[in-house]
Every structure is written in C-alpha cells, then in structure tokens.
Amino acid sequence: MTELTNQLLEKISDRSENKMTLAFLKNMYRAKNKDGGIYIARQVKPGLSNAYFWSGEQGDEFEAIDKFSLNDLGIIFGEDSLLPQF
Predict the structure, then answer these.
(1) Element (H, E) at 51
(2) Angle (nearest 5°) at CA 11 between 10 and 15
(3) What is residue 55's three-state secondary structure?
(4) Is 70 exposed, middle or buried (0-12, 13-18, 19+ CB in 10 A)?
(5) Which of 51, 53, 24 is nearest to 36 (CA)?
(6) Which of 10, 45, 50, 51 has its CA 20 to 30 A from that of 85?
(7) How far is Cα 78 from Cα 60, in angstroms, rounded to an integer?
(8) CB-CB neighbours of 50 under 10 Å
(9) How far apart are CA 57 and CA 37, in angstroms?
(10) Residues with Cβ within 8 Å of residue 19, at least 6 apart in sequence
C-alpha cells in the first residue's frame, strides 16, 4: 500500500509541475488518524501560508507548512470553493 501511495504522490507532484513537492505531500504521513493531513486555506492574512498540517488529534494545533501561497501550489479556485479558511 505504501508503494502505491508513493507512486500516486509522485504523479501528483509531476502533474503540478513540482509545485507540490514530494516533501510537501509526505506531510500527510504525519497524520495520527483519518482527520489529520494537509489543509489548504483559500484566504489567509498577508504573509501567512495557505498550506497547513494538522495531526487530527484534539488539542493539536494547525501548523503552517512553510509559506506556500495558492499560486506556489498551482491552485486556482472559484468563488464556490469549499476549502477551509484560516
């Protein structure tokens, strides 16, 4: 299963023209349960990252993954986007 997941992560990275690097995507392995993982915020205060990691555990805080902007990640969204906001 790990090998298949790694192959999928490589495809995602390739298709994003390496804007979403393998190191960035592998943050999801840090999740402690099904709720944890990488969260992408569509609106943040200036100077903050749009990419966050959360372990999924109650009491743990979201932590910024470097200072990625949506543009850095190759993400374009519409007004009806359902992505979380921080």
Answers:
(1) strand 51-54
(2) 120
(3) coil
(4) middle
(5) 53
(6) 10
(7) 30
(8) 23
(9) 11
(10) 72, 73, 74
Q: Which of 26, 34, 70 is nearest to 55 (CA)?
A: 34
* Residue 57: exposure state from Cβ atoms within 10 A (0-12, 13-18, ≥19): exposed
Please write the tens of the pLDDT for every residue from 28-85: 899 999 999 999 998 899 999 999 999 999 999 999 999 999 888 888 776 545 555 5
Q: Beta-carbon neighbour count of residue 83 at 10 Å?
A: 13
Is there a contact between 15 and 75 (Cβ–Cβ < 8 Å)?
A: no
Which of 53, 84, 83 is closest to 68 using CA atoms?
53
* DSSP per position, 1-30: -HHHHHHHHHHHHHHTTTSS-HHHHGGGGG
| Euclidean distance between CA atoms 43 and 12, whole angstroms | 23
